[in-house]
Design brief:
By secondary structure, this protein is mainly β. The protein has one domain. The chain is built from no helices and two strands. The protein has strands spanning about 5-20, 25-40. Strands 1-2 form a two-stranded antiparallel sheet. The radius of gyration is 14 Å and the shape is flat. The two termini are about 25 Å apart. The mean pLDDT is about 85.
Length: about 45
């Protein structure tokens, strides 16, 4: 299946801030654990 998938575990997560953007909200986090992200297809623009 095409798209974005992830596998793993998160042992600890800390939210350190939430920041408003022009059209989205951004968050700052500290995460401890193992995570694998696989991207089969997608579009990306800045």
């Amino acid at each position: 299946m095409k798209g974005i998938s992830s596998y793993g575990n998160i042992n600890d997560i800390q939210l350190i801030g939430i920041y408003p953007g022009s059209s989205i909200w951004l968050s700052g986090v500290i995460v401890e654990g193992n995570l694998s992200v696989k991207v089969d297809s997608g579009s990306f623009s800045l």
